[in-house]
Amino acid sequence: MLDADDLAAIRLTLELATLTTVLLLLLGTPLAWWLVHSRSRWKGVVAAVTALPLVLPPTVLGFYLLILLGPEGPLGRLTQTLGWGVLPFTFPGLVLASFLYSLPFAVQPIRNAFEGMGDRPMEVAATLRASPLDAFLTVALPLARPGLMTAAILGFAHTVGEFGVVLMMGGNIPGVTSVLSVRIYARVEAMEYAHAHWLAGGMLVFAFCVLLALHALQPDRRRP
Amino acid sequence: MTIEIRFSLAWPGFGLDLDLQLPGQGITALFGHSGAGKTTLLRAIAGLERIPGGRLVVNGEIWQYQGYFLPTHRRPLGYVFQEASLFPHLAVRGNLEYGMRRVGGRDVSRMAEIIDLLGIGALLDRKPDRLSGGERQRVAIARALLTRPRLLLMDEPLAALDQERKNEILPYLEQLHAELSIPVFYVSHSPDEVARLADHLVVLDGGRVAGCGPLTDMLARLDAPIRLGEDAGVVLEAMVAERDAEWHLARVDFVGGQLWVRDRGLSVGTPARIRILARDVGLALERVTGTSIINVFAATVTGVAEEGHPAHRLVRLDAGGAPLLARVTARSVAALRLAPGVPVQAMIKAVALID
Prior knowledge:
The structure holds 2 protein chains of 2 kinds. By secondary structure, chain A is mainly α. Chain A has a single domain (about 5-215), classed as MetI-like (MetI-like fold, Orthogonal Bundle), CATH 1.10.3720.10. In chain A, about 75% of the residues lie in helices and about 0% in strands. The longest helix of chain A has about 35 residues, at about 5-35. Chain A is globular, with a radius of gyration of 20 Å. In chain A, about 35% of the residues are buried. Chain B has 2 domains: about 1-225, P-loop containing nucleotide triphosphate hydrolases (Rossmann fold), CATH 3.40.50; about 235-355, CATH 2.40.50.100. Helices cover about 20% and strands about 40% of the residues of chain B. Chain B has helices spanning about 40-45, 90-100, 110-115, 135-145, 165-180, 190-195, 215-220, 330-335; strands at about 1-10, 15-25, 25-30, 55-60, 60-65, 70, 75-80, 150-155, 185-190, 200-205, 210-215, 235-245, 250-255, 255-260, 270-275, 280-285, 295-305, 310-320, 320-330, 345-350, 350-355. In chain B, strands 7-8-9-3-10-11 form a 6-stranded mixed sheet, sandwiched between helices. Chain B has a 5-stranded antiparallel sheet with strand order 2-1-4-5-6, with helices on one face. A 5-stranded antiparallel sheet of chain B has the order 14-13-12-15-21. In chain B, β4 (about 55-60) and β5 (about 60-65) form a beta hairpin. Chains A and B meet through α6 and α7 of A and β7 and α2 of B.
């Protein structure tokens, strides 16, 4: 049914998705806030760059990440100078690629949540002596909770479901970079359909459950 | 104790040019039509709107001057917004404690006092979406008061409510007025609310001060900075002096004399406000007998002015030191030769007693 490499792929995928989701929430939330409230002229540029993975083929992102982070790339030289080594074909490289690739899926719902609450709650908090950071933590974040939940679920699921970027950035090293989607591809190529079914069917059920959970989070009053 | 305000700004389609010295106590009503700059002024005082070059000194403390700008969360103020602004993720208790905790601890006795003052004791565990509009505003007022503000700003706190809810809250506001010593700036476009609550009146028009002064003086002016039309009239401070159980009337004494009004149950000795609308005052040259009108005073005409419709004139009177306004027809002014110095009898058809 499932061999050791399959199980390693499942564990790796869950680790990757969890770590990526944590990073998405930690960095995506301030980014979303900045995109809503900044008056900087760079806002449009940053928003566009953030949204790029929505429209680019994953191979394009993977290709440029490989070049930038490779041994001769500018970021690759930086990571080597810092003593982190070369990131492509390592787990940290996968995390970075997944983070960038899933960023728009996490930022957008958080941004919508911040936009939807308007300025008033923060103004009210300020008149009640809350500093901007205090108000952000005690008012904005709790009010944006549905958006944050959606971002976490979408970010997690999207990371589990990605294929192109991880294949280009990570390759297929069992236990290191061989995630589920890549593993399924390898199984199908090797004509091992029974194994492929177990993995692919599991993914299908998982994806369905995620979308069901998202639906449950929508504040729809007409829902039964 | 004064509050000095100097703001000027020119936005496309909207400007503000104000230089005001307002009393640091009592309720000051900021009155004007929508677009007059009332809310912008209030937001600038709170620091929610940053007007460069402005100057704001509140009872000796500088909040804004030249390059200095005290951020909103460091200003000891309370702000009540027009619409419900309670935090939806917190119950009433959490909303009340939010500001109180940030000014240094829970003062249980003060909290009990304010909760009692606004009658919200039964609501503490409810979420804001389970409250009526009037209840929400009472909680918002209590929440602002619990931060021990040195200036309370209220932006049309009743505007979003229907008349019934307004009547539910007004008594609480009147009680605040009587029991709290902090200055209150109250934005309103309702002459009714202003007459009931304000001590001091600032009339704004197109971002400028059209008039500013004590309420009684401002309302009794003939060159009123703003046309009140049917609402033109004076407000006088008075005191309940006698109650007549047989006829359900109460006698209130004011500077210019005595008035009999419908007894509203106020006990003798209670200070009260009376409002006399100009359209409810008629004039006669001689004392009229055999009339149903029970409130009649001797008064002297101090001025006559045009008012709204060409058929009408507004006559200002002095009744033993108290100003009165009467709205009569231009024909009557001519027929009775009403002019400054002419002694008349002012017959008052209706008096509103505001507690």
